Amino acid sequence: PVKGPRSVPTHERALEAVRAPAADVDGFVREFLRELNFGQGVSLARATVNDQYLALARTVRHYLMARWLEAIAHQRREPVKAVGYLSAEYLLGRQLDNALLAADLEGVVTDGLAQCGLSLDTLREQEEEPGLGNGGLGRLAACFIDSLATLSVPCIGYGIRYEYGIFRQTFVDGRQVEQPDTWLALGSPWEFPHPESSQPVNFAGHTETFVDDDGSERTRWVPEWGVIGVPYNYMVPGYRNGRVNTLRLWSAQATKAFDLSIFNGGDYVDAVRAQTFAENISKVLYPEDSTPQGKELRLQQQYFFVACSLADFMFEVLDKDFDLTRLPERIVFQLNDTHPVIAVPEMMRLLVDVKKLPWDQAWEITRQCFNYTCHTLLPEALEVWPVDLLRRLLPRHYEIIDRINAEFLADVRARFPGDEMMVRRMSIISDYPERGVRMAHLATVASGRVNGVAELHSQLLRDKVLPDFSRIWPEKFTNVTNGVTPRRFLRHANPSLSGLITEAIGDGWVTDLDKLQELEPLAGDASFRARFREVKRANKSRLVNLLRERDGYELPVEPMLDVMVKRLHEYKRQSLKLLHIVTLYDRIASGRVAASQIQPRTFVFGAKAAPGYWMAKETIHLINAVASTVNSDPALEGVLHVAFPANYNVTLAETLIPAADLSEQISLAGKEASGTGNMKFALNGALTIGTDDGANVEIRRLVGEDNFFLFGLLEPEVADLSAQGYVPSSFYESDDELKRALDLIAAGAFSGGNPDTFAPVVSNLLHEDRFMALADYRAYLDAQARVDAAYADQDAWSRSAILNVARCGFFSSDRSMRDYIDRIWHTDPVS
Ligand code: F58
């Protein structure tokens, strides 16, 4: 990489006082027009909406720039410990409004744009959200970096700048069709490329031993090929506290040396092909959710971004000659699931091979620098890399892993002599079904702390996923319940409710969400309840407008709005939700219940299926089929409606969640690690119907059981039923309504009479039903009947909804971050 000189002559330094433009309307307009003219190169009269948006984004950046540069300089100067958040995904959502909110500029910008004859509402719609994540895990990372900046904790988020983020979902004849997400196409005003800080990353080749100058035997890696990682920096502004942290995302580029040699050989076509090959590494986000992809490109991505990130922190952020034995005083890396775990052998390689530290000392340092968060309970979601692949792509790393494992197993044998079964169970390298590296074991061995993401999950992690590890190292395991940022998901997403809350208790809640408790007495105030209902109504009209503009869709919102939005996965049980809807449909269609006796509802689904997850895609097709049948039946008009807007993403969530009355959190107990959508809904005043799973457990405990609709098997009951041998068809046989619902689908009632269309879905439920939807069906319908009864009393419902808001302060990601700091990181904020 080209490393330009960095130092600036002193006389110039004195001139370089970075000053934000004046934060008033005139100051803004001047800066905005300057950006439009000189940055974008157009006059106001000729500017397209995209020109205007880009100029606006750049103008807003200027207001944050001084603080950002200050934070970066401080990081170099002062010996403070930073958090290095290592995550393959950041599901950021739109940046403009977040920046305006953090910098308190919304008023000035609205007025300034109006002076130019422009509207902020139009410009904000121009932004393509960076969808650099799949779902909960990626969104959590985005919430966490927001909270750390707001808490003034120094943090660098490290990740990948995917050229294509999560696919854009469309429906063709009710089936999901994926389109590439071209989020960079119209310009990316929020990023700052820094090619001068590029990092080389190597792959493949072999290792060899040699005798060093000091006579010691050492190993070196002779790689076969390499790429360059170019960092792109993003601002992560704290909420009105003057702190701006950095998110650094890496983009892969071909090395000059690599293609020059081929160019010189005269083969232009091959040279360009080499470039494409290198740049493929950061081309696209893997859209798999819950089950990892064992593909080589995925391992390349993982190693690519952690190699760049470690070198960046150790040799760029810190001085080149920094005493690395003191590294743990300056950084703590958090491994967001196993995707970045290859960082562990990489750090060992840097310390032992490059910096020539003794192995034991390097291991001591490494163990102090890493902690690991697990986000799953599904065994198939635990990453295992085939030994052959890992050894071919990263031969030196494989050797290092092998040695870590050998030393670890020696330790296990010393503690439990003769227990070879235990040794096998715990080994980082498994023998069966093929030789593979169990990344969760490597992460656990190398980390100071291992945490789950909700109380129940952390307990199951200890007892069921990593039981041997928690037995030998009980103190290593801890819980940090997830949280969501109140800035994006309440203050920004729900301005009406925010206004009402602020009027009642002041605006301190935005950074201290526990303050919402002060709303509790107002749940008993009839006029407050009426205003709260008014807010819901306004949020529903906002949603209607959005869907009309976005999709040309007319959403009926008079009825209760019942929402299930999350990735499509069998364990989350969208099929159970469908069985409820089909049963209501059948009750009316068969005349068992008069339409007038049904509590009217609008059901909204939002869900992407992994492109290769066949059953999930069939379920999407079925949801759309049920929607079109239900919505075109005149007898159901004003009674039942099913909407499935395509391409659910962060932006849609921001309008959808504040409008919801009922939040569907219906995974099989013991399968959803935490959930975070559940928190967003409760915080926005929706009541939850949910199982005793993930963070639902804590939500219910906090909001009170009267304000939460619990149903379904408990986790130990699931385990028992499984052990007995679960027979889904027995539930079908013994519940007439369930039988009718499944028979209707099977008979083709939603597929134009064609019984084949959904036969696989029905057959899967009837004969396999891995996630026990049929076992929970009756309990679910009963709970839905309780929902109907409760909703009939609007005033009592509002009371419960307000109590949900008042009691959910715990679910702020600020609190999660404080927990990480206290239990895991031991870092301090900077003043
Ligand atoms: C999610 N995991 C959990 N994984 O399912 C959810 O319960 C939890 O609330 C959330 O993490 C945050 O802790 C999740 O989103 C992924 O998307 C991975 C992407 C890469 C492949 C494996 C799944």
UniProtKB/TrEMBL annotation:
Q: Quote the Pfam families the UniProt record gives.
A: Phosphorylase
Does the keyword section mention Transferase?
yes
Q: Which reaction does it catalyse?
A: [(1->4)-alpha-D-glucosyl](n) + phosphate = [(1->4)-alpha-D-glucosyl](n-1) + alpha-D-glucose 1-phosphate
The record ties this protein, via InterPro entries, to:
Glycg_phsphrylas (IPR011833), Glyco_trans_35 (IPR000811), Pyridoxal_P_attach_site (IPR035090)
Q: What is its EC number?
A: 2.4.1.1
Per its UniProt record, the required cofactor names are: pyridoxal 5'-phosphate
Record's SUPFAM superfamilies? UDP-Glycosyltransferase/glycogen phosphorylase
Give the record's keywords alphabetically: Carbohydrate metabolism, Glycosyltransferase, Pyridoxal phosphate, Transferase
Q: Has keyword Membrane? A: no
| Similarity comment text for this entry | Belongs to the glycogen phosphorylase family.
Q: What does this protein do?
A: Allosteric enzyme that catalyzes the rate-limiting step in glycogen catabolism, the phosphorolytic cleavage of glycogen to produce glucose-1-phosphate, and plays a central role in maintaining cellular and organismal glucose homeostasis. Phosphorylase is an important allosteric enzyme in carbohydrate metabolism. Enzymes from different sources differ in their regulatory mechanisms and in their natural substrates. However, all known phosphorylases share catalytic and structural properties.
How is this protein named in the record?
Alpha-1,4 glucan phosphorylase
Origin organism is Kineosporia corallincola
The uppermost taxa in this organism's lineage are: Bacteria, Bacillati, Actinomycetota, Actinomycetes, Kineosporiales
